[in-house]
Amino acid sequence: MRAIAPARARDRTDEFCAIAARARTALDPANGRGRAREGNHDARAFAQMASAIGRGIHRTSLELERLNALAKASSLMDDKAREIAEASAVIKMEIQRLNESLVELQNVRARGGARGEGSKTASDHDGAVVDTLKNRLATATKTFKETLTNRQASIKAGEERRAMFGASAGPSAVNAGLDYLGDDAFARAMRAGIGGGAGFGNLQGSGAAAANAFVPRPDAPGQGVSTPYAMQTQDQMQLYNQNAAYADSRQEALQNVERTITELGGIFQQLATMVSEQGELAIRIDENVDDTLANVDSAQAQLLKYLNSISSNRWLIMKIFAVLISFFTFFIVFIA
Amino acid sequence: MNLAGAHREYVSRMLESASGMKVLVCDAVTVNIVSAVMSQSDVLRREVFLIERLHERPHEDMPHLKAVVFVRPTRENVKALAKQVRRRTYGEYRVFFSNICPDGLLQELAGEDIGSVVAQVEEYYADATAVDRNVFSLELGESNSSLMNPAQWSRSVGMAVDRCVEGIASVLLSLKRRPFIRHQRSSEAARRLAADVGRLVYEQEAGLFDFPRTEGAAHLLVLDRFDDAVTPLLSQWTYQAMVHEIFGITSTNRVDLRHIKTLRKDLREVVLSAHEDSFFANNMYANYGDLGASVKALVDEFQQHTNMSKKIESIDDMARFVESYPEFRVKSGNVSKHVALMSELSAVISQRQLMAASQVEQEVVCGTDRAGAFAQVVDALRNPALLEEERLKLVLLFALRYEKEQNQIADLTGILMQHGISRARIGLVRTILKHGGEAARTGDLFGNRSFLGRASKVVGSLKGVENVYTQHSPLISSTIQAAAKGALKQEDYPFVGPSPNGAAAGKPTELVIFIVGGVCYEETKVCAQFNALNTGCHVVVGGSTVLNARSFVDDLLELQNADR
């Protein structure tokens, strides 16, 4: 119905077009099926990719579990640093790969959407699949991060314990610790590794974080170990930095909470004043109601007085009326 | 609120929906609906090159033309339209249904629209012929009589009933109103019709009738023709009613004068439309005497005009004459139309002595003197100048008025028989008493039920009457006044569906009256006069057809046949 229309009309063009379009697709099956097939092709590719990613995530989480178990089991004496490093490297790579393929999957979906093919429900479903996969990957990454944090903590603890036993602390503890433990072959290999590993330059500055590279390992394989070790230390350094940032953010949040509480206090105070004002108003209303009641009572009394005064006249009116009626009846019956 | 105006607006919107050359496709009903509100030249002005009936076999395809289709949403119409759409007879279709279109029919049409030639589908609620500003008719024609017979209602006349319900619904929709519905208690036909409308408005299409709340309330009042069988039988003396009584006006406001051989060819069929003919609009409710004066004034004015146009002396005069010539032609056509009608009317009236007959009719219906009325009727029946139908009308009126005087009625029918009137027609006396007698009526037709009514009649007779031929005022007049004041009795006119609560809702600001069995021009006159008073209540009146005495008697005859 148009706004300016003076009289009512109902426009059913849209309804008609919808029905007609439905009827046309029903009448033209070849065309419709072709389009459906094309759509199916895309959908299949999408589904395959999605399932591959799903499998990858599952594999990664299995690896993660293993890594977790390793990290927990490792004590000061029996630390499987190499296995842990390998596992974490593998997981990291895996996660990176999964991330890339997820991006690709999203691209595939966007392409399908841009072509305007497939129904809305199908694209909704695709979106849901991508989101689920993303979520799962995010969870896996988080677990990985937690594992690493745990691992760092346990290493720190180990370092502290070692510091208790050893003479020196700080950066020199690296060499001292090694000497103390007296595993010459491993220490030699390590030193060679320090020379060869590109990432080891940073290591000297942060003894605590680096220490895990030098825990005693009877079966150390030597040179080849250096690369995974370097990667792990880098990761841990990042974690350390992240931790500092995290602490900062916590502090900020705390300050925020503090501020909010102060504001709330102010609001409560205001509210209290308002409530007390309302109380005064209510009392005033109460008084007014009482006044009104009194007024109504007096009005009723006045009305009663008036009723009494007019009811005395009523008889006269009725008499006159009766005379008129009788005359009228007489007129109708006898004259007409 | 102006029904004809709303319809005109609908039609012009319809025709303006498509630009360029187009063809208007109608069905048998909608062609009347269109032509009642718009003249041929108006339609042509809107680039309509062809007006076609939907069911006529189409000539060759014309894809260069756009089709504006205005049809009722019936199965046959949709089938025919779907066939055309499939063939793509025209290049583009804009479909307007005159009423609520069922979803099934819409689907059927859409299923055939392979080439997407249908550009627009709308419902424009104009499903009743707008005879005048506030008068509508459903033109039931043949099936009108069956509507009056509640005993056979449920079987054979479903179509006619549905048509009435649809027509009323479209009127309500075009007025944008969801009314409170009431009907006359004594009439089974009115009750069923009201119930059907109520079901449609409050249940089936409740959403469509859910208009934003506006000021005031609308009432729909369904009455039965037999509550006032007198009005259609009386001779009428106002212009429109008189023409309808004597020549008959079709639903498209045309008067057929072809049987009068002395007339000029272009006057054999004339149009009497209040919208286009201002003289008719001013005088349609004028009585015979005033009408004569008006026609004389019209002729005088025209003569003056003619004299002026005769004096052509300068170039300026010539230019002025040429400029005003078309107008002059129109005027001359109009004047000759009314003069011709008037002279024919006066010829018929004097030939058939209608004045004398009418005086007796009025005396029977409005007078209180039974013996005098009987004597006058007997005299009139012996008058050789009166036609058979006039005599029959007189007896029917007498029977209705003095129903209990069986002996006198028998005497009168005896006289009729002597004059060789057929047995079937004489049987009508019994038929009309059976359906429209005292026992079947709700309203106080002769003003003799209540003491007050009788008293006012006596006072009226003491005052004397202005015009003996127009003493009678139809029952609907008092019904309208009572309804406008919210004073109609709930027992006599019960509500169907929800009833208004509160005094404001009880007094309608808009009153739609539908008379099952047909409306008379005298009643439309009462309605127009009431609207002119501006009482804050606007009345729209309609019927299943527009009756005159002849068609009413024919309907009665059919009713009698069906009763047997």
Automatic annotation (TrEMBL), chain A:
Localization in the cell: Membrane
GO CC terms: Golgi membrane; SNARE complex
InterPro entries hit by this protein: SNARE (IPR010989), Syntaxin (IPR045242), Syntaxin/epimorphin_CS (IPR006012), T_SNARE_dom (IPR000727)
Protein name from the UniProt record: Syntaxin/epimorphin, conserved site
PANTHER family given in the database record: SYNTAXIN (PTHR19957), SYNTAXIN-5 (PTHR19957:SF3)
UniProt record similarity statement: Belongs to the syntaxin family.
Gene Ontology MF, one: SNARE binding
Alphabetical UniProt keywords: Coiled coil, Membrane, Protein transport, Transmembrane, Transmembrane helix, Transport
Residue intervals of the T-SNARE coiled-coil homology domain: 244-306
Superkingdom of this protein's organism: Eukaryota
One of the Pfam families matching this protein, by short name: SNARE
Transmembrane residue ranges: 315-335
Membrane topology classification: Single-pass type IV membrane protein
GO biological process: endoplasmic reticulum to Golgi vesicle-mediated transport; intracellular protein transport; vesicle docking; vesicle fusion
From TrEMBL, chain B:
Gene3D superfamilies documented for this protein: 1.25.40.60, 3.40.50.1910, 3.40.50.2060, Syntaxin Binding Protein 1, Chain A, domain 2
InterPro entries: Sec-1-like_dom1, Sec-1-like_dom3a, Sec1-like, Sec1-like_dom2, Sec1-like_sf
Biological process per Gene Ontology, one example term: vesicle-mediated transport
Family according to the record: Belongs to the STXBP/unc-18/SEC1 family.
Name used for this protein in its record: Putative vacuolar protein sorting
